[in-house]
Amino acid sequence: MIWERPPLVDFGFPSDRLLKLSEPKKCQAAYLQQRPRQSPEWPVSPAALSYKASPRILELARPKVLHPEFLMDREVPTQVTTVAVLARASSRLQCLAEPRVRKVTCCYERGFPESVIRPVSKFAQEAIASPRTLELARAKRLHPDYVPLRDAEWPVTKAAKHAVATPRLVELAQPCKRPPMGSVQFNPDAFTVKEAAKKATCSARIQELARPIKH
Known about the structure:
The protein is built from 13 helices and no strands. 32% of the residues lie in helices and 0% in strands. The chain is flat and about 105 Å long. The model has no long low-confidence stretch (mean pLDDT 83). It is mostly helical.
């Protein structure tokens, strides 16, 4: 919808606040004194005006040429005549132009809650299953040696409740005691070398392994 233009009488003059906000932003005096140019136009030096471009620059300045095998857009091969544009389709053409309505077979109409989802024929309802069909309809039986899963909660026997641990079990049940990291880090004897290690003599094999690898 296009609105009608209101008359000029309905327009009012802008307020002083709007006039103040519509003023362009003024540049600061410090910027006007320090700006490099007084005009937005850049001055061109005489050397640049009389400069002659090199062959390389002339080559780079050439526009890109189209590919030799480039083909322009083809014209529309079929021109629609004015008679065809203004023609009106007959009732038969409109009938043929309608989309084909396909019956939806994956869904069924909603009925009563006690009714079946799929329609079952009367013969299927009165059919009698054969011995082979009854045999195939039986559920698969479990293996004779099948043992069901244990319960998550195991019952504790009365003897286990009144059992007394031996001293060896009490000893093994004690947690491993380790010195705290604070005392290990500040241990003054952490890097003390034993007297036996000072008098030890390296074997020939150890001296051979201690040599650096030569590249």
